[in-house]
Amino acid sequence: MEKITDLNIYKMLSDELRLKILKMLSVKNMAVGEIVEKTGIDQPLISHKLKELRENGLTVSYRSGKNIIYSLASDSLKEVISVVEAAGSKIDYVCNCVECKEND
To answer: What pLDDT is recorded for position 10?
Structure first.
């Protein structure tokens, strides 16, 4: 497992599906099938995203019977995800590109 670095965290948060999975895991540990059910995304893609998260040190997994259960690798990641969610809800994006200014 790689050491969690700022770059790893930013890279993993930059993908919408990985971020969604991390948000779900910040609430509770989940089996792959449960994540598939809640997201409505095909299992192979979910498994691929979970593998990326695990290889970059953001999640850990363990086997429970036939299921593989995923959780956040660190409680401090819950804080990071919470801050990201809070920032996203407070930032009003205003585009200042030429095209948008012409349409005002």
So the answer is: 85
CA dihedral 32, 24, 56, 16 (to 10 degrees): 100
Burial (CB < 10 A; 0-12, 13-18, 19+), residue 34, is middle
Tokens of 59: 């999640």
Domains of the chain: 6-102 (1.10.10.10)
**Per-residue pLDDT tens digits for 59-85:** 999 999 999 999 999 888 898 888 887
Q: How far, in Å, CA of 1 to CA of 60, rounded?
A: 9
Q: From CA 93, how far away is CA 72, in angstroms rounded? A: 30
pLDDT tens sequence across 13-59? 889 999 999 999 999 999 999 999 999 999 999 999 999 999 999 99
Mean pLDDT (the chain) is: 87
